[in-house]
């Protein structure tokens, strides 16, 4: 797709990065990189069909990272002149020199060749940040009124988040990249209230690297989901509470993506596995000494990290360290075989090269090792449909949509809920139950993976708000997966658990 920057002047960005890199190398940096970015963020929220919140802002900045005497330095500014760029580059060099005096060992980055000049944009039809506020309010309002017309729905919250991220990256190795990422996240929540209490249910449409066309049916059938939501909600409100115990579970990708994110995505970030990163979400049980031997799951489990996936929220051409985007194995036939890397952790762990997982959520923030699109592969060939997976279950649950979650600081013990839980009896759906959570350890859960669905069940889901680091940064990331059958899962009754 053609790169058409709307918020970042390419000529200005090129001038600033050249000035910064030249100043940094002249001041003694052995490696220098510069990011000049403009990021437009929009939020629109309606409550019961009326506009409640609207925000629209563009963040501009320039960040310079250098290596001097085996130490990293970083500095940033919101100024826009070449002199300011040179000044902030010198500041980054001085920071590195200060760090060098204090650090115990030399910092080395895994090598990466020059990739020349690259222009890349995520695929979309309509940039969602260019759509007028009135059009956004009209669409969300019509969805809200449709749901409120049902006697089963008393309140509706509808929102859409839209981001256009425009980035100019350049480094002293010769890589120059112009990249534009567009993403959108719509959600509608319906709430039923009566004297007996309340229940809620949200749409399961995932956030995606698409444009405004997504909300009009490109990539998701919003009309069908919204039409069914009131009846699903009414059924959930009247549903019996689940009987705690062991069940075979067919898990829809609208729910499973979050389990992948928490129990695999974070656990295979190498900085966590090395113990370098413990803030915000802990370290990892999947330590480097277990690579090649840890039985993460059953033999049908194959997971990749991928920064190239079409419409992936974490997809790029070049990461924030100048590394080319790649797809790479993390788990093969159930065995842990790889990690997500940036250039520093790759060097520490003895890899020849980073696999391109560095990202900063702002030009004013230093790049971190961040999650790729981490995805579970579907069954090869003509794999089973979701209905066929359900037909194989005598007594179980079919789980749809994500909701709350909890996982320990080593990504090992977890608990997840969902939007809808359907009983399975003798291979057929038998109505909803509620107050459900599934609980396991990571290796027990994935070790009980009995079947994965075919390509027709595969969905790329994900989140806008993956948090990491101190101070905290936020990144958008996708997770693809098929429907799956997991046997003998421990099911809790959350209502009875809450009373303990």
Structure description:
The chain has 500 residues and is an alpha+beta fold. 22% of the residues lie in helices and 36% in strands. The strands form five sheets. Strands 8, 15, 16, 17, 18, 19, 20, 21 and 24 form a nine-stranded mixed β-sheet that branches. Helix 1 packs across helix 2 (82-102). The protein is globular, with a radius of gyration of 24 Å.
Summarize, please.
This protein is an alpha+beta fold.
pLDDT under 50 segments (min length 5)? none
Ends distance: 56 Å
Main sheet properties: 9 strands, mixed
Mean pLDDT: 96
Number of extended strands: 24
Structural class: alpha+beta
Net shape: globular
Per DSSP, what share of the residues sits in E-state strands of 2 or more residues? 35-45%
Estimate the helix proportion, in percent: 10-25%
Total helical segments: 10
Radius of gyration: 24 Å
Attribute tags:
single chain, 500 residues, alpha+beta, nine-stranded mixed β-sheet, seven-stranded mixed β-sheet, 10 helices, 24 strands, globular
Present the secondary structure layout.
Layout (H helix, E strand, L loop, with lengths): L9 H17 L4 E17 L2 E19 L2 E7 L4 H21 L14 E5 L11 H16 L6 E17 L4 E19 L2 E6 L19 H17 L6 E7 L1 H13 L4 H4 L29 E4 L20 E6 L2 E2 L6 H6 L9 E2 L8 E2 L3 E4 L9 H6 L3 E6 L4 E3 L5 E4 L3 E6 L2 E6 L2 E6 H6 L1 E4 L6 E10 L4 E9 L2 E10 H5 L2
Parallel strand pairs: 4-6, 8-15
Antiparallel strand pairs: 1-2, 1-5, 2-3, 5-6, 6-7, 8-24, 9-10, 9-14, 10-11, 12-13, 15-18, 16-17, 17-20, 18-19, 20-24, 21-24, 22-23
Helix pairs in contact: 1-2
